[in-house]
Amino acid sequence: KVNKKAVFLKGTIIGIISAFAAMALFSALLLFLNLDRAYSVPFATISVAVGIFLASYYTAKKIGDKGYLIGIITSVTVFLFITVLSFALGKPSLNINTLFHLIIMLLSGTVGGIMGVNSDKKQRYI
Q: Quick check: 72 and 109 in contact, CB under 8 A?
């Protein structure tokens, strides 16, 4: 039997590490290609979406059931972690941009969860 709490924790950690790795990659691109700083916000959004997709995919694949719900829970968990971290770093801000990021995260997590459940199976479940 799968320990769901441990799988969620590991998936969340995978998502956070993946998001930070993608951010580091995009930061290096900004630096070495001398790109405008205006690209940093879209790159950060893409980085977090990729991290949440990977986290949801991994978690749903391991649990194997209810991919959409697993994706939503994983998305909310990572969103709360990032929000608490940004508040702790001294830039507390909840605005329309935060809502946009939450929606992107929920969509990415839902798709990742559904794809994780449906991978390696002949019968497809949402």
A: yes
Residue 44 is predicted with a pLDDT of 86
CA torsion sign, 70 to 72 to 75 to 81? negative
- Which tokens sit at 101? 């990021």
pLDDT digits (tens, 9 = 90+) for 90-112: 877 788 888 898 999 999 999 99
Based on the number of CB atoms within 10 Å of its own CB, is 105 exposed (0-12), middle (13-18) or buried (19 or more)? buried
Please state, in angstroms and rounded to a whole number, the distance separating the CA atoms of residues 83 and 15: 15
Q: Name the residue among 57, 55, 56 with its Cα closest to residue 119.
A: 57
pTM for the complete prediction? 0.86
In angstroms, the CA 17 to CA 1 distance is: 26
Residue appearing with tokens 């497809």 = 124
List pLDDT tens digits, range 37-59.
Answer: 888 888 888 999 999 999 999 99
- The residue among 112, 103, 102, 120 whose CA lies nearest residue 70 is 112
